[in-house]
Amino acid sequence: MLDLVLKGKTIKLGDNISTDDIIPGRFAHLRSNLPELAKHVLEDAAPGFAAKVRSGDFIVAGNNFGLGSSREHAPLVIKMSGIGAILAKSAARIFFRNAINQGLPVLLCDTDRIRNNDELEIDLTAGMIANLTSGDTLSCSKMPPIMSAILKEGGLIAYIQKHKDFKP
Amino acid sequence: MEMGKTLAEKILSLKSHGEAQGGDIVIADVDWAFVQDTTGPLTVRQFRESGFEALANPQQTVIFLDHAAPSPAQQLSNDHILLRRFAKETGSRIYEVGDGICHQLVVEKFANPGDIIVGADSHTVTGGALGAFATGMGSSDIAVALALGKTWLRVPESFLIELKDVFSRGVYAKDLILYLIGHIGADGATYKALEFGGEALAEMTLSQRLTMANMAVEAGAKVGLFPADKITQEFLMEHGRGSDYRSIYPDAGANYERVIPVNLNQLEPMLSLPHAVDKVRPVTQANGVKIHQAFIGTCTNGRLEDLAVAAEILKNKKRHPGTRLLVAPSSRQVLSRAIEKGYIRSLIEAGAAILPPGCAACLGLHQGVLGDGEICLSTANRNFKGRMGNPDAMVYLASPATAAASAIKGEITDPREFV
After folding, report:
1. Considering only alpha carbons, which residue of chain B is nearest residue A42?
2. Exposed site from A54, A160, B288, B338, fewest CB < 10 Å?
3. Closest-CA residue to B327 (of B347, B341, B342, B309)
4. ipTM of the complex in this document
5. pLDDT band at B44 (very low <50, low <70, confident <90, very high)
6. What is the CATH code of the structural domain delimited by B272-413?
7. Which residues of B are less than 8 Å from A28 in CB distance?
8. Domain-by-domain residue ranges, chain B?
9. The pTM is what?
10. For residue B76, which residues of chain A lie inside 8 Å, CB to CB?
11. Phi and psi torsions of B331, nearest 5°
């Protein structure tokens, strides 16, 4: 089960962070060695990212986060880096679904109102973000009930282990 | 009053045994589920973890060894071993090194109008050219589709791309889809279906449709759908599957979120500038940019028609000495026919390196990784930073004609000079 209230600091990234930015194809030979693969997370787009993340931090990005490939290794290595949730103005469809399937929350909201290194408290059930640094509150767009249910179980495989089928 | 249905709504209604409308969540039967060698190993592990023992439909499950084929690294060779073993244990189909790119093989062998196809690869959308609801997903979703024989889908709202007239000389389907992506934007169709229609379809070959459906995902779309018509039927007959044909059209009065009309005769050769697919310009605006490598191939543009266009331009000519020319046919069948028709001879004599059928240089793990500061003109579908194995290199995307013309001159060249 997933924690429903998350607290952490933000790391801001820009628009159009592709899956090739998150984990480039040149590391495909490491995909069956996840700890090694995870060392390269976002290394071209945000050098030093893996070393900088503290457990529970949030990625705060602009438009179209995760565009490109269907590689589920992308949200997987982000989760392994310690990131607790991704906040973006919009997210690419396959990435969004993959992240939820990995139990990594992706929240769509107006991220221009969040700065780098702000401290946030996120209530996943209510879809609300409290910016403890600025005092601002933001609401996120709702995801379909089936996705919320998958996220609450901690991902799709955990959901299927429990329900043995889709429970719409 | 009953509303007309889009193609997406029609197929999803059929496969979810209900009335599917844009925005609904449905559980749909899956006709074909597949993985390739860079997403398959994780899918296999997720499937094992899910607690299911057997595949719901072994003979409708397909494994393709195409992305790292032949393998350039021991880790990838071991991933291939894992996938071959899984195929043997579960009774799924498997296609080996040299057979071709997953999306091309799905189209040659399996995809039928009205099917639901899910693949652990974003360019699964290619199958939409045959009127199949084909969409890319990650490893967990495919693992569950393998176990249950079904998946959940949000029914997309549709954009109608209404095509008129015919292409002028030197302009191809690739130029059209690049133009559209530039117009819609890389996230302009996120969660949506692109549905292609209009009178121009009557003249549009299946190969052209495949190029367009393939890149629907580059505008963010979930699927890129063509109606199944006479041209679809002819393709299926050619591939020994004429009896699988069924006609599928959207209803008159279907509800489209957006209608985008395009006059094909007003288009010119287009390209995507580094490092974004939607940074689209006429080729003339990049004329003269020196290129170190031209790459003709991929699930976007590695088909017989593409090789024919390139061979025609390169026949009795030579690549520029400063430009490598790589050609990767998209399948064994394509390679075999290109040999029969003499295209491969023309390409080899022009100085091309012929790569085995497969993804080749597209995703930057082998067979044409770029050096620091190098520029490649590629017929692929992506040019993100680092895409061809080096974040310090640049990739332009264009048609096979533009790639062939540019290989001769050693710089980005409008193909209308040569056709």
Report:
1. B386
2. B288
3. B347
4. 0.97
5. very high
6. 3.30.499.10
7. 38, 67-68, 76, 363, 365
8. 7-154, 158-247+254-266, 272-413
9. 0.97
10. 28-29
11. -155, 165
